[in-house]
């Protein structure tokens, strides 16, 4: 009984220590200053504001990918930042949560995907069925540009 009470006490002490550490980290973060208030009389006219409007820079696919991995925005990707997505994928496969993947857990997704694609239920995929197993990629975003004007025929 003494061991049990000591274990409970140690667990409570660890939780309290974590709470104090979390609060000290949150309190040490510096907040940005609030934005300056501009009176309406001092505000520039609308055409002037549009002339000074910043333009968005196009980012490459690789820059966007880098930004998704660089969680702390320091311009570097640490090993932990790199492995976060792998850990999430691993956790989805580890259905019993024991931290180990058995062959059945690993193969479950593939087996389910195969069974869903096998419409004829004959244990084999033909070309049309196999095409449904391809990874679905998002279509690129298209901008709403006006159609190009064609030059008039000069004859």
Task: Compose a concise summary of this entry.
This protein is an all-alpha fold and 155 residues long. Helices cover 50% and strands 0% of the residues. The N and C termini lie far apart (103 Å).
Descriptive report:
The protein has helices at residues 2-28, 46-51, 61-69, 79-93, 103-117, 127-131. The N and C termini lie far apart (103 Å). The protein is an all-alpha fold. The chain is flat, with a radius of gyration of 29 Å. The protein has six helices and no strands.
For the report, how would you describe the main beta sheet? none
Mean pLDDT figure: 76
User: Cα-atom Rg, whole angstroms?
Assistant: 29 Å
Given the helix and strand composition, which structural class is it? mainly alpha
Uncertain ranges:
none
Q: What sort of overall outline do the alpha carbons produce when their principal axes are compared?
A: flat
Oligomeric description of these chains: single chain
Total of helices: 6
What is the N-to-C succession of helices and strands? HHHHHH
Report the β-strand fraction as a percent range.
under 5%
Counting DSSP E segments of at least 2 residues, the number of strands comes to 0
Helix content: 40-55%
Distance between the ends: 103 Å
């Amino acid at each position: 009984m003494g061991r049990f009470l000591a274990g409970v006490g140690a667990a409570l002490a660890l939780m309290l220590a974590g709470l104090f550490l979390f609060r000290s980290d949150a309190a040490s973060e510096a907040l940005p200053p609030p934005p300056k208030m501009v009176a309406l009389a001092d505000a520039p006219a609308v055409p002037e504001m549009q002339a000074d409007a910043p333009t968005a820079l196009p980012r490459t696919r690789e820059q966007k990918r880098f930004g998704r991995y660089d969680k702390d925005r320091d311009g570097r990707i640490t090993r932990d930042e790199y492995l976060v997505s792998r850990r999430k994928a691993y956790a989805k496969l580890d259905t019993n949560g024991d931290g180990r993947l058995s062959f059945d857990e690993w193969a479950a997704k593939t087996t389910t995907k195969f069974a869903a694609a096998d419409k004829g239920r004959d244990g084999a995929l033909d070309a049309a069925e196999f095409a449904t197993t391809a990874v679905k990629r998002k279509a690129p975003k298209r901008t709403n540009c006006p159609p190009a004007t064609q030059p008039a025929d000069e004859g």
